[in-house]
Amino acid sequence: MKELRKLSRSPPEGIKYIPNTDDNIGEIHAEVEGPTGTPFAGGAWRIKLVLSQDFPNSPPKGFFLTRIFHPNIAKNGDICVNTLKKDWKPEMGISHVLQVIRCLLIVPFPESSLNDEAGKMFMESYDEYAQRATLMTRIHALKPAGGKEASSSSEAASSKSSGGIVVVEEQSSAKKKKLNAVVGGTGAKSKKKAGGKAKKKRNKDRL
Q: What is the sign of the dihedral through the CA atoms of 54, 74, 136 and 39?
């Protein structure tokens, strides 16, 4: 597909085309970077476009495969945007669709929300919405410096956390042993001292 080759060579800003490993031409995968100045900055989301048999006469269906907190993106990943519905035109290409989806991260449309909680929060308290969206970004979509997937980062964090527990337990155990040794040593010294006093008393009585 000529358009996909072009998308691979020169993708739009913030978009990365991901070739399918199973040669399924009915699905297009891409990675969308969170725009700066938004709660999604620093994140990267894997999305999927499913092409119908009569594409481009009918629009593709879009899905977020990485979790996100957004008014126009359902919890199951469905995307609600007019470009993929009533405003679709056959001359619109895949590149245009991906750019529209990324723009949705900049300007949501809460009046046509698929995530009612996010839409209501966006309208009533943007600061609260932004905090929640940022938190979801850090948990599910934040990419480490090495460029690995967010899931790998989560596993690493989990492993690090578990390792921390072991270290704390080891440190606690070491402290207990040290404390016991100190207490035991103090007890031994006390016994030795008490024994010395008793011996001195016996010697004094003999005299």
A: positive
